[in-house]
């Protein structure tokens, strides 16, 4: 890989051992994936934040990296952690978990990472421009950045995103390059898509079938930002899709000469819904995967006016959205109904299975995919109207 003088100096330790280590990570990845150079990144979004996912080994690594002097130079933001940093006791998070979680947060803070703790940084004012290079790690945010915003990022790991933040660069391979942003799977949708759960079911189905191909959807007449985030999140969870196009809606549309073709019917989506539904008696309704927008908070508030029927309700969002005055009325209504609007965390990265919860309802294709394995949950998957 060709390095600039500055990059070579970083690799040789001119900015200290932690930056040299971060540069070694980037150069090694670049060599593995055939990158010819590094590109500057305007931001990094860092996953690997919940103690549930990184454990003691992760905590030890982050603390040690900080001790070595690791500090970010690019604007860097955190993915959700394992608890609401202010309301974790109310959530029922075990004290031992909370202690470790707070140490992880402190380690990131010491490195200069902003404690956004959200998977929707683009709803918190972090909106890269079309063509801008970033190093984001959370798969749904990666999908949104590439597909809806037209920015450029590979699906980074927590470590490679942190290394990019420390060096301000990432290897130029994969989705950073024009030639790799071409769809080779045209997906014709012949099913009504009425809400985020329908887009989630579609995403689960296509993500499973896409393999390494970039899907390009036709026959989707309308899709708002919330539906697109649901679609992308589900495809990234059931498969590894990091970029997709929707004809007439997303900013890019580039097709391979002879793309494969897939038709999705209502029966396909029904099969997904049946497979994801493993309980009809949820104890918890968990919404906000990816983290809720203001519009989604309002839609939930509308549906809980008459109470929750004895179920617990978590609505996950970012502290930025929760602090938006436009969200205040909806949040007050959800809390008045007995729900909890939680920030910094979600149903998947919180230690839900250690909190006496075994059956969860969600409208998210991504959460419904992960909860059985990562949270040991039986799942009810459906639209807001069905689960509230
Ligand atoms: Fe976000 Fe958690 Fe879903 S990190 S995308 S709410 S699994």
Could you give a quick summary of the protein structure above?
This protein has 388 residues and is of the alpha/beta class. 40% of the residues lie in helices and 17% in strands. The chain folds into three domains: 172 residues, Aconitase, domain 3; 90 residues, Aconitase, Domain 2; 111 residues, 2-Layer Sandwich (Aconitase, domain 3), CATH 3.30.499.
Task: Please characterize this protein's 3D structure.
It is a single chain. By secondary structure, the protein is an alpha/beta fold. The chain has three domains: 5-176, Aconitase, domain 3 (2-Layer Sandwich), CATH 3.30.499; 182-271, Aconitase, Domain 2 (3-Layer(aba) Sandwich); 277-387, 2-Layer Sandwich (Aconitase, domain 3). The chain is built from 15 helices and 14 strands. The chain has helices spanning 5-11, 17-33, 51-67, 88-91, 95-110, 139-147, 158-167, 196-210, 225-238, 266-276, 294-303, 319-322, 328-336, 365-374, 384-387; strands spanning 38-40, 44-46, 76-78, 135-136, 169-171, 183-190, 215-218, 245-246, 255-265, 284-292, 312-317, 340-343, 359-362, 378-381. The strands form four sheets. Strands 12-11-10-13-14 form a five-stranded parallel sheet, sandwiched between helices. Helix 3 packs parallel to helix 5 (95-110), helix 6 crosses helix 9 (225-238) and helix 11 runs parallel beside helix 13 (328-336). The mean pLDDT is 97. The structure holds FE3-S4 cluster (F3S). FE3-S4 cluster binds at residues 79-80, 119, 138, 140, 233, 289-291, 316, 346, 348-349, 366-367, 370.
CATH class assignment of the largest domain: Alpha Beta
Helix content: 40-55%
Number of helices: 15
Overall tally of domains: 3
Distance between the termini: 54 Å
| Rg calculated over all Cα atoms | 21 Å
- The share of residues in extended strands comes to 15-25%
Structural class: alpha/beta
Which homologous superfamily in CATH is the superfamily of the largest domain? Aconitase, domain 3
Q: Could you give the order of strands across the largest sheet?
A: 12-11-10-13-14
């Amino acid at each position: 890989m060709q390095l600039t003088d500055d990059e070579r100096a970083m690799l040789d330790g001119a900015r200290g051992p932690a930056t040299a280590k971060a540069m070694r990570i980037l150069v090694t990845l670049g060599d593995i994936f055939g990158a010819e150079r590094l590109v500057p990144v305007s931001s990094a979004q860092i996953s690997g934040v919940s103690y549930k996912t990184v454990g003691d080994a992760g905590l030890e690594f982050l603390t040690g990296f900080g001790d070595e002097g690791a500090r970010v130079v690019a604007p860097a933001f955190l993915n959700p952690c394992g608890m609401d940093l202010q309301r974790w006791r109310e959530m029922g998070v075990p004290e031992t978990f909370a202690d470790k979680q707070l140490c992880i947060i402190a380690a990131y803070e010491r490195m200069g990472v902003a404690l956004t703790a959200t998977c929707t940084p683009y709803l918190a004012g972090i909106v890269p421009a079309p063509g801008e290079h970033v190093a984001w790690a959370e798969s749904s945010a990666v999908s949104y950045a590439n597909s809806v915003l037209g920015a450029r990022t590979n699906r980074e790991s927590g470590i490679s995103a942190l290394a990019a933040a420390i060096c301000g660069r990432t290897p130029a391979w994969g989705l950073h390059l024009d030639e790799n942003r071409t769809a080779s799977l045209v997906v014709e949708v012949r099913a009504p898509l009425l809400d985020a759960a329908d887009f989630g079911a579609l995403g689960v189905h296509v993500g499973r079938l896409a393999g390494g191909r970039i899907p390009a959807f036709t026959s989707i007449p309308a899709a708002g930002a919330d539906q697109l985030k649901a679609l992308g999140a589900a495809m990234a969870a059931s498969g590894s899709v990091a970029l997709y196009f929707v004809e007439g809606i997303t900013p890019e549309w580039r097709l391979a000469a002879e793309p494969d073709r897939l038709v999705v019917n209502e029966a396909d989506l029904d099969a997904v819904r049946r497979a994801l539904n493993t309980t009809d008696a949820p104890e918890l309704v968990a919404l906000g995967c990816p983290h809720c927008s203001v519009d989604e908070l309002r839609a939930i508030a509308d549906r809980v006016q008459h109470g929750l029927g004895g179920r617990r309700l978590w609505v996950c969002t970012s502290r930025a959205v929760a602090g938006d005055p436009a969200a205040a009325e909806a949040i007050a209504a959800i809390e008045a109904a007995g729900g909890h609007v939680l920030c910094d965390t979600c149903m998947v990265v919180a230690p839900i299975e250690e909190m006496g919860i075994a059956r969860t309802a969600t409208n998210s294709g991504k959460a419904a995919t992960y909860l059985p394995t990562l949270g040991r949950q039986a799942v009810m998957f459906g639209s807001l109207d069905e689960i509230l």
